[in-house]
Structure to design on (134 residues):
C-alpha cells in the first residue's frame, strides 16, 4: 500500500497517543502520578489538534459528524483533570482514523488491481441477417 503524508500523520498521531497512554500507565503504577498526567496530556494534544483541524474542514464542507463528540470528550476530560480518560479517548479516536485510512487504502489498492485487469479492447461479432440471431 502506498503511504501518503496523511497516512503517515495518522500513524504518527496513533503512535503518540498509544505511547502516551502506555508510558503514562507505567508512570502511574510507579507512583509518579503528576508525571503520568503530563505524559497523558502530551499524548492527547496531537490527537486533539488533528481532530479540531478535521472538524473545521468538515464544517467548511457543511458536514457535521461524531468527531465533535470525541473532541468534546477529550477537552472536557482535560479540563476536569481526567487525563487518563482523555488519553483513552485519544487512542480510540486515532486508532479509528488509522483503521479507516488503512481500509480505504486497501480498498483503493484492490480496486486499482481489479481495474487494471479490465480489457482495453473488445471484438464484436455480428451474425448475418435472417439466421435468427442478432
Amino acid at each position: 500500500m502506498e503511504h501518503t503524508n496523511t497516512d503517515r500523520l495518522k500513524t504518527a498521531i496513533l503512535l503518540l497517543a498509544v505511547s502516551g497512554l502506555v508510558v503514562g500507565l507505567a508512570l502511574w503504577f510507579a507512583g509518579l502520578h503528576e508525571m503520568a498526567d503530563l505524559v497523558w496530556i502530551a499524548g492527547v494534544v496531537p490527537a486533539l489538534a488533528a481532530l479540531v483541524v478535521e472538524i473545521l474542514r468538515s464544517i467548511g464542507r457543511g458536514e457535521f459528524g461524531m468527531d465533535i463528540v470525541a473532541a468534546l470528550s477529550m477537552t472536557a476530560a482535560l479540563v476536569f483533570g481526567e487525563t487518563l480518560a482523555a488519553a483513552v479517548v485519544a487512542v480510540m479516536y486515532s486508532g479509528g482514523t488509522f483503521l479507516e485510512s488503512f481500509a480505504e487504502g486497501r480498498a483503493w489498492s484492490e480496486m486499482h488491481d481489479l481495474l487494471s485487469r479490465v480489457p482495453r479492447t473488445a471484438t464484436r461479432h455480428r451474425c448475418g441477417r435472417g439466421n435468427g440471431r442478432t
Summary: The chain has a mean pLDDT of 86. The two ends are 45 Å apart (CA to CA). The longest helix spans residues 83-115. Helices lie at 5-29, 33-60, 67-79, 83-115.
